[in-house]
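Problem 12. The chain below contains 82 residues. Write out its predicted structure in token notation.
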Amino acid sequence: MLYYIDQDWDKNLTVIEAVLRLIRMFGVERCFFASNYPVDIQKGWPAHRLFPALRRLCDKGGISLGEQRQLFAGTARRAYRV
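Solution.
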């Protein structure tokens, strides 16, 4: 729901740096990405736009593929015991 801060959050360096700072602060073991489907779609952020934007954010932050796996799935699996 980063679009609540800025509809084009993926281009806002302040938002991007804040998200990356939180990931560095808490670690990928305690952070994960999620969507607010179907609200995200109504706000202009369907999956085909959201997930590439999150991948670009990871690239900008130097987040490794292994760490990305945690952010996109691993940490949520552990948190929800799936």
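Discussion. The CA atoms of residues 18 and 82 lie 29 Å apart. Students who got a different answer should revisit the alignment rule from Section 12.3.
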